[in-house]
Design goal:
Elements (H helix, E strand, L loop, with lengths): L4 E9 L3 H12 L5 E5 L16 E2 L6 E2 L1 H15 L2 E4 L2 E7 L2 E6 L2 E12 L3 E3 L15 E3 H10 L7 E5 L3 H12 L3 E6 L9 E2 L8 E4 L2 E7 L6 E6 L4 E5 L2 E4 L3 E3 L2 H5 L24 E3 L10 H20 L11 E3 L3 E5 L9 E6 L3 E2 L2 E6 L2 E7 L3 E2 L4 E5 L13 E6 L1
Helix pairs in contact: 1-2, 1-6, 3-4
Length: 409
């Protein structure tokens, strides 16, 4: 089938905070035609259904709600000269830097000089968590819940259980309160460091927390009637509810990257990149939650702005695309690191733990040779990452083994 074809200078896939920030900064440099594709009807990504205040742009610093920030980011991109197209889905690759798209207007093929993947992440649903039981109504991820409540005003039930301990669990509890639902419990497999209930805010009643507890089954047909729980020590109980919300446990939206032959990192499950945010495919960059999932809008926007230097260097020919790069990996109890390849640019590296670590010493080494060591002043948790400076990259041997980040004595 013949498709209309076009050529742009930079094609950004995804209009969340990372993609919009990248497009605004790129367009402002005068690099040429910058186009953003977004499959949803409106730009902004998850910000559109996060009405809480507390988000902030760099300038001005006044905190705003998610929808307002989404509008500001989209407006800044358009004002800088970028073209933001919504309702357009990138369906696959027709060449190294050529994407096929579909929209209500039809099929199209777009070739770019550089492609920036900013496709974001999603929460792992109940099916992927292998929670047994029937398939009743009333089962949500955190993102689905917030869309149902804040975008569509849907009925989400009267009594709920929230699964997870990441910050998004707090937002799920607030959304349920907004919808008039009682939250029976917050359930997490992690130990809960603070005894007592979880207090999400003055507008929502405190919620009992069941730490070291997992959901082992869903009950009910037609509509959820309860969840079966297993507590530490093996004791099992059942909580009556008509809604359950699975939060956190992020999966990068990496399908487009994978179909384009981009190498994925086994730790993050997103594209493997160096500190310049270059993937394994020449001319293809990746930014935001597609790299790791679970970070906030501020971090995503920061990565979007950071990719500009690499894109400009690539387009000008000033920085040849690197060939083999040394992998950066983590050892248990750490979960992942991003970026996860060495390169000429030091950058900063995000590290996420697999369990709660109190004042850990992070050690970076290659082939037994220490490159960096730092004791963190606080606690590292599975729900928040820590940022490490990357000056140690200059000391890594390009011909050596992988650089390993672990926890030392």
């Amino acid at each position: 089938m013949n498709r209309p074809t076009r050529v742009v200078d930079v094609l950004v896939v995804g209009a969340g905070p990372a993609g919009l920030a990248a497009a605004a900064r790129l367009a402002a440099t005068g690099v040429g035609t910058v186009e953003v594709l977004e499959r949803e009807r409106h730009p902004g990504g998850a910000l559109r259904h996060c009405p809480r205040s507390g988000f902030a742009l760099r300038e001005p610093r006044q905190p705003v709600g998610g929808p307002a920030l989404a509008r500001r980011l989209a407006g800044a991109a358009v004002a800088a000269g970028a073209v933001v197209r919504t309702g357009v889905t990138a369906t696959g690759w027709a060449g190294a830097l050529t994407l096929d798209t579909t929209s209500p207007a039809g099929l199209e093929r777009i070739t770019a000089r550089a492609v920036v993947l900013a496709t974001g992440a999603r929460e792992r649903p109940r099916s992927a968590r292998l929670v047994p039981g029937t398939r009743p109504a009333g089962v949500f991820t955190g993102g689905e819940l917030q869309q149902a409540v804040y975008l569509y005003g849907q009925d989400v039930g009267t009594r709920a259980v929230v699964v997870g301990a990441e910050p998004v669990a707090r937002h799920a509890v607030r959304a349920l309160g907004r919808a008039g639902a009682e939250v029976a419990a917050l359930v997490t497999t992690e130990p809960w460091p603070r005894p007592g209930a979880f207090a999400p805010g003055r507008l929502v009643a405190p919620v009992p927390v069941l730490g070291r507890t997992e959901v082992t089954g869903l009950l009910g047909r037609g509509r959820l009637s309860g969840v079966r729980l297993r507590h530490a020590g093996g004791r099992e109980t059942t909580v009556a509810c008509d809604t359950v919300v699975f939060t956190g446990d992020w999966i990068p939206e990496h399908e487009l990257a994978r179909h384009g032959g981009v190498v994925l990192d086994p730790g993050t499950r997103g594209p493997a990149v160096d500190a310049a945010l270059r993937t394994s495919a020449t001319g293809v960059f990746a930014v935001g939650d597609v790299l790791h999932g679970g970070e906030g809008a501020s971090r995503a926007a920061t990565e979007g702005r950071a990719v500009v230097a690499g894109v400009l260097a690539h387009l000008s020919g000033a920085a040849p695309w690197p060939g083999s790069r040394v992998a950066v990996v983590v050892d248990e109890p750490l979960r992942w690191v991003a970026p996860n390849l060495t390169g000429a640019v030091p950058g900063r590296f995000l590290v996420r733990a697999g369990r709660r670590l109190v004042r850990p010493v992070l050690v970076v080494a290659q082939d037994g040779v220490p490159l960096y060591r730092r004791r963190l002043p606080g606690t590292l948790t599975p729900s928040r990452s820590v940022s490490l400076p990357g000056a140690w990259v200059a000391g890594a041997d390009p011909a050596g083994g992988p650089v390993r980040i672990g926890v030392g004595p």
